[in-house]
Amino acid sequence: MTFSTFKSANKLITGQDALDYLTQALAKFNIQNPLIVTDQGVVSSGTIQHVLDLLPVSYSIYDAVKPEPELEQVQDCINFYHEKQSDAIIAVGGGSVLDIAKCTAALASQEGDIRDFIGTDQIQDRRIALIVIPTTSGTGSEVTNIAILSDAAKQMKQGIVSDYLLPDVAIVSPLMSVSCPASVTAASGVDALVHAIEAYISVNHSDITDAMALQAIELIVEYLPQAYALPSNLIAREKMATASLMAGLAFGNAGVGAVHALAYPLGGKYKMAHGVSNALMLPFVLQWNLLGCAERLSKIAQLLNLAEGNQHMANAEKLVKFLHRFCQQLHIPPGLSSFGILESDLPALAAEAIKVERLLKNNPRKLTVKDIEAIYREAY
Ligand SMILES: NC(=O)c1ccc[n+]([C@@H]2O[C@H](COP(=O)([O-])OP(=O)(O)OC[C@H]3O[C@@H](n4cnc5c(N)ncnc54)[C@H](O)[C@@H]3O)[C@@H](O)[C@H]2O)c1
Ligand SMILES: [Fe+2]
Q1: What positions does the domain Alcohol dehydrogenase iron-type/glycerol dehydrogenase GldA occupy (predicted)?
Q2: For the stretch 135-145, what's the b/e string if a residue is b when 16 or more beta carbons lie within 10 angstroms of its beta carbon?
Q3: Would you say residue 284 lies in a domain?
Q4: Structural domain includes residue 1
Q5: Spatial distance between the Cα atoms of 193 and 175, rounded to a whole number of angstroms
């Protein structure tokens, strides 16, 4: 049997007035006492107020989500949900908040420990309505069936994958990301770019995910520098919000590959922001992947007007160089050594990365643990 499936949040609301849909969503699900799941950055920047001002009902706020949160935070949020007798979840935040909110909505009505649900299709149901409003552009978590949480004991990021994590409604408004610090705009924007590129070269890509990925890549390359340069540029924010969503649709269905697999141990062990670890690995993994997907990388180079002639390998190499400069312009620190990682740590990192089989199996070139170590050395 050869077929592809395509999953998304049930309803996607985009555009400058997207937040206006929130009251309709509350009425549709008969929500009387929602729990707003968010974090300190979104609250202290005042951005949360865009949402609170629209709520015609009573609500509670759980604002304790930590960046790159740990698995245990889900139980804390579930306890709060029950304490406040909430009847739905509205997530307002970046990927960290959305992932905690998605797990809380799915698991608050079920028995079991969060660790029981690590892996694919371990969740059986979701009975709690889930509305998500991303404030970064971004992880695409608003449309994916994935939550990625830190496992402090194993010093790794763990994936929880289930269709019950797909939100009922994703409201994607450019107003929500205006207050992002520049470093968060840059890191989360590059994360979206990596999602689109890895989905496009994934062995599981389809014509549908290709269309999403290519459009996302074009938008991000044009508008991420603009959003970074002028945070209040609402057109750039809107294009980035849509691009991040499209990249989420692409990778949520085609999967990501070795860039993410090699980035996971960096996030788990060194607490590096997810977008930063991806940015560091991107050019080096793509350089390695050239043999497996030069033609597809060349297509991206053509889309970005980097290509000269029909030499796929040469064009693909131009793209790799371009991406290197692109991340530099966004002031993402280059090299693993800038983050205090010791060269002697690289074999242990490679031993962790090879375990991320869920993602490595999507990559267009096979990697051994020795290959991974060599890529880490290049990126050092
Ligand atoms: N579920 C998925 O599909 C998926 C995909 C990729 C990444 N992730 C996960 O998402 C997390 C990263 O998410 P992220 O990159 O969105 O960052 P984040 O949610 O960790 O936020 C980073 C920082 O920016 C602040 N912030 C966010 N929005 C803001 C705003 N509008 N104004 C002011 N401050 C703001 C936060 O308070 C936080 O301090 C990681 O844990 C990563 O593993 C999940
Ligand atoms: Fe990512």
Answers
A1: 10-174
A2: bbbbbbbbbbb
A3: yes
A4: no
A5: 21
Same domain, 145 and 192: no
Asked whether 152 and 292 are in contact (CB, 8 A), the reply is no
Q: What is the distance between the alpha carbons of residues 351 and 297, in angstroms, rounded to a whole number?
A: 28
How far, in Å, CA of 284 to CA of 228, rounded? Answer: 24
Determine whether the shortest distance from the Cβ of 140 to ligand 1 is under 6 A.
yes
Q: What is the Å distance from ligand 2's center to 265 Cα?
A: 13
Residue nearest to atom 20 of ligand 1 (CA): 67
Sign of CA dihedral 363, 364, 369, 375: negative
- Name the helix (H) or strand (E) containing 169: strand 169-172
Domain boundary among 177, 202, 232: 177
Ligand nearest to the CA of 136: 1
Number of domains the chain is built from: 2
C-alpha–C-alpha distance, residues 274 and 324, integer Å: 17
348-380: per-residue pLDDT in tens? 999 999 999 999 999 999 999 999 999 999 999
Q: For ligand 1, pick from 96, 118, 149 the residue to mutate: most ligand atoms within 8 Å of CB.
A: 96
pLDDT in tens, 251-279: 999 999 999 999 999 988 888 999 999 99
The dihedral of CA 134, 262, 236, 47: what is its sign? positive
For atom 17 of ligand 1, the residue with the nearest CA is 94
- The CA 122 to ligand 2 mean position distance, Å, reads 21
Q: Which atom in ligand 1 lies closest to the alpha carbon of residue 149?
A: 41
Q: How far apart are CA 230 and CA 17, in angstroms?
A: 21
